[in-house]
């Protein structure tokens, strides 16, 4: 696995991106930063190349991938005729943390779409990703660059831990900005449907195009989710996560009891609350929902079985990017405790 630092300076960055783009064109897999999480890329038009992604991640074959492109023109080139509101969304939110599910025109290989007649497409808003996509000049299929089931990678170190030796290269562009994945929006209906909450919130979408629906499967674990990936267990930390829907006092009571039972407890905590918590180990998430989203996956990866028995974390309000944070926390959680 070749490792390029692209944060160090312009000249090196140009050379690294050239080499990475070449590997992609030759059918190899390369991990690269986006504004949400690191992606593991391969030529989306090359079925064999895409197979390498599934292999490296241990990803189920029935879970389709997102095709990444640099421009609206490239996006339009890989899809069929779509609903008029999609143009409004693209012009407002792309490049940005949103994936449009649109009718495929067959440009992408069958294993990108897992045999569906739709394809997920997005224009990532990250200078390194955009330059890499421009240089490669092909649609790049890219799921998050983690071993399937683990928290998504927000640093190149996370990618290295999971995939070193299994992929051709890693482009290190530092910590990603948004920290949770893109919003997956099914745009094949008259009224679009959020299949996965992410970097662009329901509120932001509705401001631009009016009513937007939410896949009922996201509400409770009842019906079958329309995004195949949403049915799998996800974001599982090494150590069991307890999600607490209650005050800091409640959290401290739960901590005290767990400690009495001999457990070593680590808290994922808002920076302003750190003085109040009674654990030896903690991870400072920052204070705003944006900061919490940015640090969440790193926090989930920080604590290991050797030193920690339980991770504990408070719920966040389910507004704005809080919807995406809570979606990931609930999927990662071993149990939720309500007061
Ligand atoms: O932010 C992101 O979206 C990151 C970065 C790397 O771009 N990528 C990412 O990819 O999160 P992945 O593969 O981990 O998640 C893609 C999600 C899955 O839940 C998948 O089932 C859904 O999008 N998806 C992809 N194509 C689809 C399609 N045609 N129909 C329905 N859902 C689809
Ligand atoms: Mg993923």
UniProtKB/TrEMBL annotation:
Q: Which InterPro entries match?
A: DHBP_synth_RibB-like_a/b_dom, Sua5-like_dom, Sua5/YwlC_C, Sua5_C, T(6)A37_SUA5, TC-AMP_synthase_SUA5
Keyword flag Plastid? no
At the top level, the lineage of the source is Bacteria
Instruction: Give the main localization category.
Output: cytoplasm
Coiled coil (UniProt feature) = none
The catalysed reaction is: L-threonine + hydrogencarbonate + ATP = L-threonylcarbamoyladenylate + diphosphate + H2O
* Record's GO cellular component terms: cytoplasm
Give the matching Pfam families: Sua5_C, Sua5_yciO_yrdC
Molecular function via GO: ATP binding; double-stranded RNA binding; L-threonylcarbamoyladenylate synthase; tRNA binding
Q: Which PANTHER family match?
A: SUA5, THREONYLCARBAMOYL-AMP SYNTHASE
Protein name as it appears in the record:
Threonylcarbamoyl-AMP synthase
Q: Which organism is it from?
A: Cerasibacillus quisquiliarum
């Amino acid at each position: 696995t070749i490792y390029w630092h692209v944060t160090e300076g312009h000249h090196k960055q140009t050379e690294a991106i050239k080499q990475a783009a070449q590997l992609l064109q030759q059918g190899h897999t390369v991990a690269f930063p986006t504004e949400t999480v690191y992606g593991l890329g391969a030529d989306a038009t090359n079925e064999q190349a895409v197979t390498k992604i599934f292999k490296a991640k241990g990803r189920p074959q029935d879970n389709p991938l997102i095709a990444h492109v640099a421009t609206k023109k490239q996006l339009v080139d890989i899809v069929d005729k779509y609903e008029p509101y999609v143009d409004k969304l693209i012009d407002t939110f792309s490049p940005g943390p949103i994936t449009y599910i649109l009718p495929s025109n067959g440009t992408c290989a069958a294993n990108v779409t897992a045999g569906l007649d739709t394809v997920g497409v997005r224009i990532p808003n990250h200078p390194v990703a955009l330059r890499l996509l421009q240089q490669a000049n092909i649609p790049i299929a890219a799921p998050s660059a983690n071993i399937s089931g683990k928290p998504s990678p927000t640093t190149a170190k996370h990618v290295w831990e999971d995939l070193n030796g299994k992929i051709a290269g890693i482009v290190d562009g530092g910590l990603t900005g948004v920290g949770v994945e893109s919003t997956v929006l099914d745009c094949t209906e008259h009224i679009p449907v959020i299949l996965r909450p992410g970097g662009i919130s329901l509120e932001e979408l509705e401001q631009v195009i009016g009513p937007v629906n939410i896949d009922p499967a996201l509400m409770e674990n009842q019906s079958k989710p329309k995004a195949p990936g949403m049915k799998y267990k996800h974001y599982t930390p090494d150590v069991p996560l307890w999600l607490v829907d209650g005050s800091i006092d409640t959290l401290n009571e739960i901590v005290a009891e767990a400690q009495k039972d001999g457990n070593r407890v680590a808290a994922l905590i808002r920076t302003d609350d750190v003085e109040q918590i009674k654990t030896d180990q903690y991870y400072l998430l920052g204070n705003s929902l944006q900061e919490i989203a940015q640090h969440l996956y790193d926090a989930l990866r920080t604590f290991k079985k050797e030193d920690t028995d339980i991770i504990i974390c408070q719920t966040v309000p389910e507004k704005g990017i809080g919807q995406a944070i809570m979606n990931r926390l609930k999927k990662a959680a071993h149990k939720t405790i309500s007061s």
